[in-house]
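Attaching the record inline, Q. Sequence:
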Amino acid sequence: MNRRQWVWLTAIVVLTLLVAASSPAVRAQEEAMAPDQPVAEPEASTGETAVEEILRQQEDLITGQMFSYNPEGRRDPFRSLYESLGPTQGGKRPQGVAGMLVAELDLTGVVNDPRGGDVVVVMGSDNKGYFLRAGDEVYDGTVIAIDTRLGTVTFRQPIDDPRSIKPYRDVVKRLVPLGDEESGDE
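Structure, as predicted:
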């Protein structure tokens, strides 16, 4: 072995001893051997508290204690924007035509009343007839127009759809559907 190889071998051994002496395991062993210093707790106990902390956080997350959403008048961000078709009023529906949806009403007649304007006759979901005038309200809409010449009634339904320009939708019910009207002229 020549002198150059001997220097490299000595340098490697010295560096290895320095790295080994500075490692945490050697320090902990030296501290444990010292009689005047208290013995430190092993790393496993701090690892157990970290595991317990992670498990506690997961349990809080599952039970909903850690994260919650308080809307405070804002819309629910997890509901689809396309689900605004149902009535927005809550609770039990009133009796009669006031508790019926526009979709549940069938137009059966349009009458011109000289004393009080136009009147429509609708058949409700309870198979009873009802008279409605402009301004009358049903569960999810209001009668806004009656046209005796065309035989139509127009309901205005409020909608809560952020994609819509207007905050309402007009629903037109016809006495004679458009398809039957064209075939009746021939």
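DSSP finds four helices and seven strands in the chain. The chain has a mean pLDDT of 78.

More tomorrow.
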